[in-house]
Predict the 3D structure of the following.
Amino acid sequence: MERLQKVIAYAGVASRRKAEQLILEGKVKVNGKVVTQLGTKVSNSDVIEVNGIKLEKQDKVYYLLYKPRGVISTVSDDKGRKTVVDFFKDVVDERIFPVGRLDYDTSGLILLTNDGEFANLMTHPKFKIEKKYIARLKGIPTIEDLKKLQRGIELEDGKTAPAKVSMTTVDRKANKAICEITIHEGRNRQVRRMFEAIGTPVVKLKREKFAFLDLTGLNPGEFRELTKHEVKRLRVLAETGRID
């Protein structure tokens, strides 16, 4: 089940805000009946009409993008900055959106789809989909610092869930280090804030893995479509915690 205004927006008829306006104005029907209640939920079997025109259902699509730095994880940007969707404009007909986000200055793996239910499975903390990052740090964390991250560390928006953390490279002369960190939450700038909390700010950050997916064969700005088997495995992982 998905909110009606989101379904209209995903179909490319209007922005979500405009879709809400159309609903309030009585211009949307579900199964032949006018719906004016925001938040109404619909399923794939429901027939939706906007201004008397039946909404055509799009095929579900799933993509993996190697996001470069300097790109924002949104569908559009009022400041004119490049977005993750811009990489698909000339090759993908469907209206897609990013699954979660990567910061403007963070590179790496991000998924895009037009499947809202799938996106929720991939991003809701209760499903515990792991994301692995490589963080180049200013400063060298102590063993106790890393243990704090592993146990969960207090941030301004609450304590983080336990993380998997290891230090892979240490340059004591330059006072720099490289750490691998795996988390399943998706708070705003979470990895950066976690390392800032232990006094070793992130200089460069890259997401290398999303569940079992990685960036093999891709350069920054390149993407590929997920296979049906990969999509199925991701769903099974979210729903059962196991990978078939």
Q: What stands out?
A: The first helix runs from residue 4 to 10. Helices lie at 4-10, 16-24, 116-123, 143-151, 190-197, 228-240. The chain is about 20% helix and 30% strand.
